[in-house]
Design brief:
Chain A is an alpha/beta fold. Helices cover 44% and strands 15% of the residues of chain A. In chain A, α11 runs antiparallel to α12, α12 packs parallel to α17 and α13 packs parallel to α14. By secondary structure, chain B is an all-alpha fold. Chain B is built from four helices and no strands. The chains are: A alpha/beta, B mainly alpha.
Chain lengths: 465, 112
């Protein structure tokens, strides 16, 4: 079956190019949904803005950096602590938020003076911090403030600080993906290679594209450390600003995310001859495969097997329990982009779960090539899904569980279908062996709980009886 | 022959991320490099890994060789010529799906 026009989209027929149902014998040379294009007027997108992609997803994860947001206060609040990425320094980055708190007078007369005052104030209030990310927002980009000039002036005035400017206002692209892109490439061009890292192992790597959601980074790093590998830069989970300036000295880039994470790796390959190895880190089978590949690169095969054996010994029995309980359950994955293709085979192979519909908020065609190649026949693949489409798809595929974000999750709950937070997790971490058990447990608890069925009962009907 | 190459292509499509790298040039590099080393591993040939990139291609090829041997035991039984022919068809088909006939409009974007 080719691209599909859902009933609810009859008045916006352009949506047909964004919905695909996989049929036997088809491949992505025949049908590939449109993606990374502007949301069509009339469709209620659940995408985020480009600034949010830069700040909330990637930059805001850093554990030792002031995140100065040059704009109205809402841009700061709405990209603060809604994603749970802890750090090993008592979660510093989750506790604070910084904003220039722009008002109408700044829009009229310019905000640069206010920006400089706020930057100096922040460094003064937190004298131990010497690093800053500075973000533009829609308002300050439109009035033409020059944050780079202000950053330079502050660096010169204070002498011992380093500032990275992210010029990606909310309107810069069609979704949050543009923010990932702008931040990643600017970091590569401006900061990588400006500091020499301390090398402590014969084996070194960068891990690109994990943001320590509920501790994912800790799980992954333990495996690599047990194999004797030093992680020079973990982009950006639990990382420091200066860690990431030393990316040019690693021997291998291991990539877990997509698109602009891959661009960083591609450029590091071109500029510094560091090869790129893409792996999956959710699921037992994938994680073991990833560790074996990393082991093969360094000649550390025995070390990789040791880690895998220990993890299977610890968690294998629990996986078998959950697989038995979850086999045949029907799942939807409505998340950002990469999790669609990271998860669809992982839950199918390791848990027996069938993924029946997937929707990506900001994925590109690269993501759809991967997920259609990996996903099941009969499954619905949607780009930039809207609310009415979700209702229609739910009625058609009748899922037992939906992994999505809190916005769509609330909608799903009203239909009495259990949902799990697919962005920030319910009870993570979800990566690695230990993490996948957490993911399976959340799924098992959700589909086994009587809560959703009980919630269907209207107590007004039974109270009087 | 066609059935054999189809079987390998189907497995690679479902399993391997290296065929879906960012641009046409790195997809091409991976398809050529990994399938060449895959053939060498299956034939038991000596493999020379001179550069970090060679070792990276080897890492992917080594794991893939193990998986294919397990799923498609016939691969260890065929002659060297048959294997070369099969893998040449695999390369051509993967190149077609992921590069030459790919609908991904970002594949040939020069920058980022």
């Amino acid at each position: 079956m080719p691209l599909k026009l859902l009933k609810c989209d009859e008045l916006i027929p352009e949506r047909e190019k964004h919905v695909y149902v996989k049929a036997a014998g088809e491949d992505t040379t025949q049908f590939l949904p449109l993606s990374n294009v502007s949301t069509i007027p009339g469709t209620l997108s659940e995408r985020g803005c480009s600034y949010c992609g830069a700040k909330l997803v990637i930059g805001g994860v850093l554990k030792d950096t002031i995140q100065m947001i040059h704009g109205p206060v809402g841009c700061a609040y709405d990209t603060w602590h809604t994603k749970r990425y802890p750090s090993d320094n008592d979660n510093f980055q989750l506790k604070y938020v910084w904003s220039t708190d722009l008002k109408e007078k700044h829009i009229v007369f310019g905000g640069e003076k206010q920006l400089k005052t706020s930057m100096l104030e922040a460094f003064k209030a937190m004298p131990d911090l010497k690093r800053m990310f500075l973000y533009t927002t829609c308002a300050t980009a439109l009035i033409g403030d020059d944050p780079k000039a202000v950053a330079k002036a502050v660096e010169e005035e204070l002498g011992d600080v380093d500032i990275f400017v992210v010029q990606c206002p909310g309107f810069a692209g069609v979704s949050q993906s543009k923010g990932h892109h702008v931040l990643n490439m600017a970091w590569l061009n401006e900061k990588v290679g400006t500091l020499e890292p301390t090398i402590t192992s014969k084996y070194t790597m960068n891990f690109i594209g994990d943001y320590n959601i509920q501790g994912d980074t800790y799980v992954l790093e333990k495996y690599f450390h047990d194999m004797g590998i030093q992680i020079v830069a973990h982009f950006t989970g639990n990382a420091t600003y200066d860690d990431m300036r030393g990316m040019h000295r690693a021997q291998l880039n291991v990539v877990n995310c997509a698109r602009s994470a891959g661009y960083i790796a591609n450029e590091l390959k071109k500029r510094y001859d560091i090869p790129r190895l893409d792996i999956d880190t959710w699921g037992f089978t994938y994680m073991a495969e990833g560790l074996r590949k990393v082991g093969a690169f360094y000649g550390l095969e025995a070390e990789a097997e040791k880690v895998i054996e220990a993890e299977y010994a610890k968690y294998g029995e629990q996986l078998a329990f959950y697989k038995k309980a979850l086999t045949g359950k029907r799942m939807c994955i409505w998340t950002g982009g990469p999790r669609l293709w990271h998860w669809t085979k992982a839950v199918e192979d390791d848990l027996g779960v069938e993924v029946v519909a997937m929707s990506s908020k900001f994925g590109h065609q690269e993501d759809f090539e991967k997920v259609i190649a990996r996903g099941r026949e009969g499954t619905i693949y949607i780009d930039d899904g809207n609310e009415l489409e979700f209702f229609e798809v739910i009625a058609e595929v009748k899922p037992d569980i939906i992994y999505t974000g809190p916005r769509v999750g609330e909608l799903v709950k009203k239909l009495h279908i259990p949902y799990i937070n697919g962005h920030a997790y319910h009870n993570g971490p979800y990566m690695g062996f230990e993490g996948f058990i957490n993911m399976a447990r959340d799924m098992y608890n959700a589909v086994s709980s009587p809560l959703m069925q009980l919630a269907k009962t209207d107590i007004r009907e039974t109270e009087g009886k | 022959m066609s059935e054999r190459s189809d079987e390998i292509v189907a497995f690679i499509q479902e399993r391997c991320l290296w065929q879906f790298f960012s641009r046409a040039w790195d997809r091409e590099e991976n398809i050529q490099g990994i399938i060449d080393i895959l053939g060498q591993i299956i034939k038991g040939e000596h493999i020379t890994l001179e550069t970090p990139s060679d070792r990276c291609l080897y890492a992917d090829a080594k794991i893939l060789a193990g998986q294919i041997k397990e799923r498609s035991p016939w691969i260890s039984q065929v002659t060297a010529e048959q294997l070369d022919d099969t893998l040449a068809t695999v390369k051509a088909r993967l190149t077609e799906i992921t590069i030459t006939k790919s609908q991904n409009i970002e594949l040939r974007v020069a920058g980022y």
